[in-house]
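Q: What structure does this chain adopt?
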Amino acid sequence: MSENSTPVFVITGAPNKGKSTFVKALTNDPNVVIKSTAGTTTKSKPYHYYKKNSEGDMEKLLTLWDTPGFENQAEVFEILNDWKKEGHERPLELIQKYVNTYKGHPDHKREVEIFKPLVDFACIIYVADCSKSFSKEDYLREIQLLQFTNLPRIAILNPIDGNLHIESWREGLRQYFHTIKVFNPHKTTFEEKLSTLSALSHLHDKWERPINYVIDLIENDRKQILEESARIIRKTVLEIFDNEFEINVDPLQDDDEHKEELLKQARKFVINKMNSSQKKINSLFGIDIEIELTENYEDNDLFSETVRKRNLSPHQRGFIWAVGGGAIGALIDAAAGGLTFGVFTAILSSGGYATGYFSDFKPQDLLNIKKYINSERKEKIKVKSLNPEIGFLVINRLRQVVSNLHNRTAANTEKIVINKDLDKKSLLKISKLINQISKSKKQRYSESNKKELFDFIHQKLIEDQKGHPGQMN
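A:
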């Protein structure tokens, strides 16, 4: 029996312990069926990692076989042991003999399905629910069956309802498995997914290089996605500030009514631009599954007071208003002097626009408007500039989208929370930059401004992904 040149892993274990969920988390394949009832998987099915080669064809790099849960393990173990006593066949030859003998037998359908992908050599991944106590009476025979194959093996402990019994499982499995790893597919992060693939690479020395190649491809692809996401976010910021919002002056309306009309125009443009950007970022990650949106698209209404509170920290609001007011000198001193936020909160309160730290503002307050006479001698009113808060809101809102998608798999749909606060020097730097962009038009801000904005966004996207699983602090 020839050994596969492509790494092959067969996922095994008792029914309803998370085998299919494990496959779905690692491959992001939407075709993996997951249900709460045991026995959903009745046939073995392969799922693959692919790469497009130089000819444009899809090249298979790694295969994961999803298999049914064990059903008749005690009898199968006895059959194999009896055959072993009768002759000197190697374990995989006996496994092949079992598959040939019992194929179609109603009492052996599941074990035949489990063993079929093993006969040409594969590594075994045994998935167990470590939220339940380990019991030799319940699990020993299926574990011994896997040991009988003499194939490389790793145990994945899945804490479905908590990790209370991890140590009992470690102790129970230690003599049967080369590696034991805890992995919760419903809460895994991108980094944990790579760590699990790395653990698989150590099971068989001939497969270490191809699996590491897969890991490198995934990492490089993700780096490119974060870079492109940063470009999308930067472009969104610039296009929102670049856009012209204006209406004809209506003598029957007062300034507040004019402002309300301009707000409707600006709000519609910003929502459409944010929706479009979110869809572009979503497509970069290529998670083709039916899930709830990363966040509700309603959260792309950056003029909403609720959305603004959710996506803007008080310190950001204080800084962005203070940069436009009289507190800028004190802020520079505070940033350079290493003062705490509590100390220069007092400094902020002395600046003209620094009340942004303490006050709530209406959506209309984010518009700086002016009246003018155009070349046709018509009186117009336009948005001279949007408040710099909008820049922070765009960045933080889309950072949140990227962070949720970065750690999302077909099995893990948990949302995370990014840390919107920045260190003082970074906060001052980006506040000044956004303030400058908000008061300029595209022909007046420089390429260095654009690069500075991209570098800031890109660095924050990288930092966001290094937080604690499920909660980015």
